Amino acid sequence: MNALSTPQDPSLAVPRHAGWLVVSALVAALASTLVLTLTGCASYAGIEPRARTIEPARAGLVPADTAAPAVPEAWWSGFGDSTLDGLVQQALAGSPTLKVAQARLDRAAASVDGSRANDGIQGDLSLEASRQRYTENGMIPKPLAGSTEDSGTLQVNASYEFDFFGRNRAAIEAAVGAQRASEADIAAARVLLASQVSRTYLQLARLAEQRDVAARALAQRDEVLSLIRQRVAAGLDTQVELRQGEGALPETRQQLEALDEQMAITRHALAALTAQAPSALDGLTPRLQQVHALALPDTLPVDLLARRADVSAARWRVEAASQDTQSAKAQFYPNVSLTGFAGFSSIGLDRLLKSGSQQYGIGPAIHLPIFDTARLRANLRGKTADVDAAVETYNAAVIDAVRDVADQLTSIQSIERQQREQRQAGTAAESAYDLATQRYKAGLGTYITVLTAESNVLTQRRLAADLQARALDTQVSLARALGGGYAAR
Fold it and tell me: How far is CA 105 from CA 98, 182, 186, 359, 366, in A?
């Protein structure tokens, strides 16, 4: 009998279904082994996250009869300034920061797809061809021994992992949590960018108002200087008053130059926020009078945590870290998989696709993590530490969100009271200045009195512009603190 021939004795023939019987027996044996060895697997006892999410009441959020109205998504439109609307839209469309956040979201989405792919059947198709001389002094018998032959393999391989303990499911949920955190990050970045553009625009308007005050002061002092010169010529004033009047003009011009510098720098900052060249907004001079107040809630909303994108992102990161921990725990249990292959293999490429070259096989496998206890426990400790960090980051975000809203509400209420008082002080200062000027013209008062009254007027004018700008700026901060129109998924 040829050494390579197959026995023809019917008693030695293998039944057609015997292979499946063997596989079934192996699966049954592995299942029994799985049950028997669960108690002997590595243990994760004693490794649990310690941090706990903060209760809303502890952070200062208490139930109320009615919830505060939500901030509109395009809240900046409430200012009624079309120029500001265009700048915000341009910033949102062209900001590199938002594009970086979008790239991170795309990466997170790809991670979700990768995790889902790991939960299904894995397979590949391989084609190999080679030319080989077989040794004459090895285990290869004649006629192959000493010959040089072509060989080839065309084969499909497939495997499937039985996710009995949820490791793959937890990995998918962790990836989904990270993706949703990235989505919330984009929303938070949009809100922040819109608020930065709005605040910079209002800062430019404040500086323009301050420059108008300085320009009025320059014209006013020039008029007073003309009056002093007339009085000196008439012998009613001395050179002391003249030098004081002349010295006030350079000081005001220096203030104008400083304000021009600040306005130029602010325009550069606004251009950068809107992804433009520094000189793109050189002619932009907004006015505070053109900006209307926003209609915003005057109470702390009970659903604040659902309105803040940064809080939502922190919450999803807690979820992702928790699922990572579940996946790490599942690694303590046996891993059961089923692998199979089917294809052709032959010595001699001309016989590769013939029926006699067929080969196939299937078989289960089990991996028992018995001797990996130290590594698995170390990995789980790291994952639980990530959960603790994520929870405390979330707690910090909650506390900061509540404080942020409370700060803005307090500032708005305080600024309103300050504006009422300032209007009264401004009216009194203007009246005092008019009286001092009239008395000086009539020769009944001194120039020192005029200078003092003028200083008070300029101070009140600057303060009025600052308070008006602060009121609008604080409204922007409150819109951002209230979530800027974000709605949690």
Answer: 10, 5, 8, 45, 36
Two structure tokens written together for 58: 């502890």
Q: Give 417-462 pLDDT, tens digit per residue.
A: 999 999 999 999 999 989 988 887 888 887 778 777 888 888 898 8
- pLDDT (0 to 100) of residue 489: 65
Q: How far apart are CA 399 and CA 481, in angstroms?
A: 12
Phi and psi dihedrals of 43, rounded to 5? -110, 140
Q: Please answer whether residues 318 and 53 qualify as being in contact, where contact means their C-beta atoms are separated by less than 8 angstroms.
A: yes
Report how far Cα 305 is from the mean position of its chain's Cα atoms: 16
Residues 6+ apart with CB under 8 A from 20: none
Q: Which one is predicted more confidently, 110 or 443?
A: 110
Contacts of 336 (CB under 8 A, 6+ apart): 30, 34, 161, 162, 164, 364, 365, 366
316-337 in b/e form (b: 16+ CB < 10 A) is bbbbbbbbbbbbbbbbbbbbbe
Q: Tell me: the pLDDT tens digits for 177-222?
A: 999 999 999 999 999 999 999 999 999 999 999 998 888 888 877 8
What are the tokens at 149? Answer: 């032959």
Region of 151 please: left (phi>0), alpha (psi -120 to 50) or beta: beta
Distance CA 281, CA 288 (A): 17
- 3-class state of residue 451 by DSSP: helix
Q: Is 141 exposed, middle or buried (0-12, 13-18, 19+ CB in 10 A)?
A: exposed
> What is the dihedral angle through the alpha carbons of 158, 163, 166, 172, rounded to the nearest 10 degrees?
20
Q: Which tens digit of pLDDT belongs to each residue from 142-159?
A: 888 888 888 889 999 988
Distance of alpha carbon 50 from alpha carbon 48, whole angstroms: 6
Long-range contact set of residues 427-436: C-beta below 8 Å, sequence gap at least 24: 429/453, 429/456, 429/457, 429/459, 429/460, 430/457, 430/460, 432/456, 432/457, 433/457
Q: For residues 464, 469, 471 and 475, what is the CA-based torsion angle, rounded to 10 degrees?
A: 170
pLDDT band at 64 (very low <50, low <70, confident <90, very high): low
> Which amino acid, 31?
A
Tell me: pLDDT of 15 over 50. no
Query: Token pair of 280, please?
Result: 């793109």
* Residue 270 contacts residue 201 (beta carbons within 8 Å): yes
Given its phi and psi angles, is residue 146 left (phi above 0), alpha (psi -120 to 50 degrees) or beta?
A: left
